[in-house]
Amino acid sequence: MLLAHRRVSIIDLSKAGHQPMPDHDKQLWIVYNGEIYNYRELRKELEIGGYHFQSQTDTEVILAAYEKWGNGCVHKFNGMWAFVIYDRRRNVIFASRDRSGVKPLYYFYNKEKFAFASEIKALLSLPFIPKEINRAAVFDFLALELEEQEEEGFIRSIFELPPAHCFELDLNTGDFRKWRYYQLKFEDAWEKVNDQKLKVYLSDIKELIINAIKLRLRSDVAVGSSLSGGIDSSSIVCVINDLLRKEKIQQIGDVQKTFSACYNDSLIDESRWAKLIVDQTKTAWHRT
């Protein structure tokens, strides 16, 4: 059993956040890429239940949540993640990927050997993984312009764990089980436009956006905003600026920093739209 990790420190920059990270009795080990935005709320809930934390990281919160709720812990998380936990008590490997698939997770399993990584090239460095092209995926790409529509991508025997999925590998029996833990709900019924309902919907959406941005500002390092000039990034920048007027946000500073990719080709350059937002919000604009 070998777990390796290269960390990008966002929450708790101390050595206490280094990975692979064990739980208090070293029966659970985790490697993790991502951020659990509601880790503070979950931490409080777990502390009430008697868990004693050794760090300020969201990584340790995942371990404690798994210890308390098992595989069902993923239903408690609000964030982006790809993590793998080695459970020594049950002798299983449990892995999960966030609902939207923001963080990648690839794996290889042939009943004899198992390996996982956040990038395919890391798996290809292993001597026991065959370097063979998946002809079906290549055909779909060249003939139909479809890029890796299946879990098995361009390289045979290397699979991508789909978004909103988990898997568990039993190291005693070799049984591999994969399942979907989340399905986005949608409303397919038609109804007449109702002004009162419209006001409620708008209010709800605004509240969700503001709350989502507040959660994502939790950081122990400086935070900036990508600004393309589109409606999504423009909304985020404007909301953060409004929050700054109401309270000091240490990780933002006195003036919000925005970053835009600019091009000499006017057909693809959107800096004129980004500038409208910069002029309105008075942010510190960095262009590349």
CATH architecture of the largest domain: 4-Layer Sandwich
CATH uppermost class of the largest domain: Alpha Beta
Helical residue percent band: 25-40%
Strand arrangement across the biggest beta sheet: 1-2-3-4-8-9
Count structural domains. 2
Q: H/E order of the elements?
A: EEHHEEEEHHEEEHEHEHE
Which structural class do you get from the secondary structure elements?
Answer: alpha+beta
CATH superfamily of the largest domain: Aminohydrolase, N-terminal nucleophile (Ntn) domain
Determine the N-to-C terminus distance. Answer: 43 Å
Provide key terms for this protein:
single chain; 288 residues; alpha+beta; Glutamine Phosphoribosylpyrophosphate, subunit 1, domain 1; six-stranded antiparallel beta sheet
What would you note in describing this structure?
The protein is built from seven helices and twelve strands. The chain has 288 residues and is α+β, with helices and mostly antiparallel strands. The chain has two domains: 15-180, Glutamine Phosphoribosylpyrophosphate, subunit 1, domain 1 (4-Layer Sandwich), CATH 3.60.20.10; 195-287, no CATH class. Strands 1-2-3-4-8-9 form a six-stranded antiparallel beta sheet, with helices on one face. A three-stranded antiparallel beta sheet has the order 6-5-7. β3 (79-87) and β4 (92-97) form a beta hairpin. α1 (39-48) packs across α2.
How are the elements arranged and paired?
Layout (H helix, E strand, L loop, with lengths): L20 E2 L5 E9 L2 H10 L9 H12 L9 E9 L4 E6 L8 E4 L4 E4 L2 H5 L10 H10 L14 E2 L4 E6 L5 E5 L14 H22 L8 E2 L4 H16 L10 E4 L10 H11 L2 E4 L1
Parallel strand pairs: 10-11, 11-12
Antiparallel strand pairs: 1-2, 2-3, 3-4, 4-8, 5-6, 5-7, 8-9
Helix pairs in contact: 1-2
